Amino acid sequence: MAAYYTFEDLSGGTAGDKKTDNPYHDLIESCSNDRAQIQKRYENHRVNRNGQQKDKLLAADFPGVTIDEILAKLDNPEQNPSYEDPRHCLVFWARPTEHVKTMVAEIQQALKKVAPSLWLMPQTNLHMTALEVTHSLTEPEIEALVAQIRPHAESITDFTYDHRCRLVKPMVSFDAQALALSWLPASNEPAQGDRAVESDDYTYHHLRRDLFSLVSGTGVKVASRYVIPSAHLTIGRFITKSDFETQDGSVDKRKFAQLVEEIEKINGWLKEKYWPEEGQDAKAGSEWVVGEGIGLDFRKENTKPRRKERSNMAARRDGTAEEEPLLGERGDASLPEGKPLYYNFVLGTAVAAQAGAWIITAIVWGAVLSNDLILFSAHPLLNSAAFLFLIQGILVLQPTHTAQQKKQGTYTHAALNDVGILAAIAGLVVIEYNKFDHNGTHFESPHAILGLVTYILVALQALVGFTQYFTPGLYGSVDNARSLYKYHRVGGYITTVFMLATICAATYTTFNVNVLQIQLWAVVVASILVVLGIASRIRLAKFGWLAGK
């Protein structure tokens, strides 16, 4: 067992009989891999620690808060213009959802009433350390570890796509140095969305165990201070004693009592508003699915961020970023919470896909409407319209990551696909009627064969997509139906390629050569735009083992 752990475990449990090199595994084993016991250990720790710290803060001989001297200097650049934190750490962060950020903002404002000088963690820096690889090293030492982990980093940051753990029951935890919002691993509490209760068997502690193993597998020795049963994100730190001193500089016991009273008041509010109640639906914002949709952040950073809040992009532009995401900004193609769903149609590289799809549709419609209309004219008009709607169906669902976004996105995805499929069926009826009416051949040209394959793929996609979401019982359980999602995603992208190939092949048909005269190069260029626009937003981790995860 590594011996880097500096925080006391107050959960009241004992380690398993078999010691391992993974400290997180030991707790899971001692809890018989039971989610309820694991939650109890987390609950015991935070309740006991809050009680311990309350007694400490209210004790007659309490000397006052412990000031974070480094953060105090960083927070006052006017007096310390050239000061830099010499310590660096390497971490995997879990970023909070917008619901959690809103909750934190309300708590911070309440705390400010009794501690006006409290340093508040900026919203852009809020995080929970899922795994601390190491801490308090020099920058060259960190860089050496980064080089060792980087080839494996993406598979680690994307691990939460297929290993989702849920946190519930938020509570403010505190000590003489800082305040944090702590959570418990879920255990059979009401869930938002269609998440099955059995999914809670994989807890946050399981995730921490697996992250430890994944990083250790790169050859890096994990030297973490945080292995106790706690899931928390820091929301404030003490950088001055002035809020809790009398005019003569002595400790003001009354103000500490007010602080503790305010914390207990906040915790009562959290319990009433956000804690799940048996037999009732989950309350909005009452849970946090760790890393859902956006994965984890792999970061090297100075151990303390400044108070002055600036955007990461601005900091990177002038080279003064205090924390560096080692795999770029995660979630660049994820719909921010609170943004309307239609943003997905143009989010990120969707603009390129839209350009390609609309160019193809415009070329076809322009060519058809520039000539005399006959019954057959409806075939390219309907099929190009179907193609356009099906592309929109992909784009609207790709960047969703919260439960609400996924629900809205799925219904919109289904509606767009329904319109597209109806148009495609109408286009098929037109061409087949025309073939029978003129004794034509069926499914012999490359365009016809590719078109037939595309129709079959679209039909299969529609069948699987509808049943796995709206009638999951057909697959035995919601989890079984969910296990098909990755195949449905892959199938959708394959179908898109066949659609584009069918359109390209249509430029060689007799009707196009003699009448429409659409140029192959134009369709190919537009098709490339569609592929690049869609492919650039794909999260390979969502394909599970299909992506080698």
What does this structure look like?
With 549 residues, this protein is an alpha+beta fold. The chain has 2 domains: 23-325, Cyclic Phosphodiesterase, Chain: A; 341-547, Four Helix Bundle (Hemerythrin (Met), subunit A), CATH 1.20.120.1770. The protein has helices at residues 23-30, 35-58, 69-74, 98-114, 139-157, 204-216, 253-274, 312-317, 350-369, 378-397, 403-437, 446-470, 478-482, 485-506, 510-516, 520-535, and strands at residues 88-94, 119-120, 128-137, 166-174, 178-185, 231-237, 287-289, 297-302, 323-325. A hairpin with a 3-residue loop joins strand 4 (166-174) and strand 5. Helix 9 runs antiparallel to helix 16 (520-535). The radius of gyration is 28 Å and the shape is elongated. The protein starts with 22 loop residues before the first helix and ends in a 14-residue tail after the last helix.
The percentage of residues in β strands lies in: 5-15%
**Straight-line N-to-C gap:** 27 Å
Morphology call = elongated
CATH architecture of the largest domain: Alpha-Beta Complex
Question: Overall pLDDT, averaged?
Answer: 86
Number of domains: 2
Largest β-sheet summary = 5 strands, antiparallel
Count of DSSP strands = 9
Secondary-structure element series: HHHEHEEHEEHEHEEHEHHHHHHHH
- Top-tier CATH class of the largest domain: Alpha Beta
Structural class: alpha+beta
* Strand order across the largest sheet: 2-6-5-4-7
> Would you identify the regions where 5 or more consecutive residues have pLDDT less than 50?
1-5, 306-324, 328-332
Q: Helix count?
A: 16
Reported by name, the CATH topology of the largest domain is: Cyclic Phosphodiesterase, Chain: A
Q: What is the radius of gyration computed over CA atoms, rounded to a whole number of angstroms? A: 28 Å
Helix content: 40-55%
CATH superfamily of the largest domain: Cyclic phosphodiesterase
